[in-house]
Amino acid sequence: MAINTKINTSKLDEILCRYEYKKSNLIAILQAVQEEYRYLPEDALIYIGTKVEGLSPATVFGVATFYAQFSLEPKGKFEIKVCDGTACHVRGSMPVLNAIRNKLGIKEGQLTTDNGLFSLETVSCLGACGLAPVVVINGKVHPQMTSDAISIVLDTILKEEE
Ligand code: FES
Predict the structure, then answer these.
(1) Tell me: the pLDDT tens digits for 30-39?
(2) What is the pLDDT of residue 74?
(3) Cα(52) to centroid of ligand 1, in Å?
(4) Which residues line ligand 1 (CB under 6 A)?
(5) pTM, to two decimals
(6) Alpha carbon of 84 to those of 42, 46, 56, 104, 132: distances in Å?
(7) Nearest CA to ligand 1 atom 1
């Protein structure tokens, strides 16, 4: 089967080898691939499905789409998660989300900015309701966000990336 040249198959083989090409390690394999590419490229899933005994590409796709932790779309260098659980919603997560969308030019339904720098998604309660509304950027928690505060955070990142 033809594999997209953008996919580094030797990198995939290294990951598969680390997990002994075992079907029972599929979740760990997918986690490692996502860590490498920041998402699960379609061709990587096909490759895994053809290389691991007892799996098929369809099964690998099924598992990858079942778990919310996996993304089949490219994520940005900076992954922004806006909590829209009840506490965060009540304390103003939507204006914060809209401020991020406006600042970065991300339309509703769009995951990643065209330059690949940011991806934006809403998530359910992160278990930090006392800090609501919460925004997480690449795993770092930003508590009690406001539209102005998130704008400053994003400006700082944009400046560093210039
Ligand atoms: S609702 Fe946002 S952290 Fe709980």
Answers:
(1) 999 999 988 9
(2) 87
(3) 39
(4) 83, 85-88, 125-129, 132, 134
(5) 0.76
(6) 29, 34, 36, 19, 9
(7) 85
